[in-house]
Amino acid sequence: MAISDWPEHQRPRERLIREGAPALSDAELLAVFLRVGVKGKNAIELARDMVGHFGSLQALFGASLAEFCATHGLGSAKFAQLQAVMELARRALEEQVKQGSALSSPQAVKQYLRLLFHGKPHESFHVLFLDVKNRLLASKELFRGTLTHTSVYPREVVKEALARNAASVMLAHNHPSGSAEPSESDLLLTRALVQALALVDIRILDHFVVAGQHVHSFAEHGQL
């Protein structure tokens, strides 16, 4: 049955407007995004198929263009729309972090990092540069590939921090393998960067390891 034939109080879009987005299931939210289904399936049935095929929302959002388009009813236009939504969410969170102290909104920082590293198949090392009030000045990817304490160069981090007149920094990198637990190389790298930045009076406030929806904070675990 087409969703337009449902009672109005059961339709996802009308429920979202009336009750708010959190009241909807994953499939219902995806149906609002899809707007229409395919022959023989309404938008909610198609959305359920999508979640079932990919196994999770995280896997769906991280799918490549080829993987996404391999699902019946999906194409490059929907893929582009989904990527645009993800990027808008990331930029909105970046604005939130820039407007206030990063230390007073750790959840916003973590959510920003989840979106920042979303879908990256390779290891990536980012530095968040902060001013004296711990507000975000800039976020930049400095290194990419297999990250160890020898492949991330402290002098480059110091140079970038000085160029932005940063008072402190937060470090972040991802583990595409799926575990947010820091490795011994991560610990060695952090110690080397703490020492290098201390020479120019710049503090490292935290180092985050991101693996999907999991974010490990060195500061919270006493590892700085």
Taken in chain order, the helices and strands follow as HHHHHHHEEHEHEE
Catalogue the unreliable spans.
none
What is the helix content?
A: 40-55%
**Which structural class do you get from the secondary structure elements?**
alpha+beta
Textual characterization of the structure:
The chain is of the alpha+beta class and about 220 residues long. It is built from 9 helices and 5 strands; from the N terminus they run αααααααββαβαββ. The chain has helices at about 10-20, 25-35, 45-55, 55-60, 65-70, 75-100, 105-115, 155-165, 185-200, and strands at about 125-130, 135-145, 170-175, 205-210, 215. A 5-stranded mixed beta sheet has the order 2-1-3-4-5, sandwiched between helices. Strand 1 and strand 2 form a beta hairpin. The termini are far apart. The model has no long low-confidence stretch (mean pLDDT about 80).
Which helices and strands, and how do they pair?
Elements: H1 12-19, H2 26-34, H3 43-54, H4 57-61, H5 65-69, H6 76-99, H7 106-116, E1 124-130, E2 136-144, H8 154-163, E3 168-174, H9 184-198, E4 203-211, E5 214-217
Parallel strand pairs: 3-4
Antiparallel strand pairs: 1-2, 1-3, 4-5
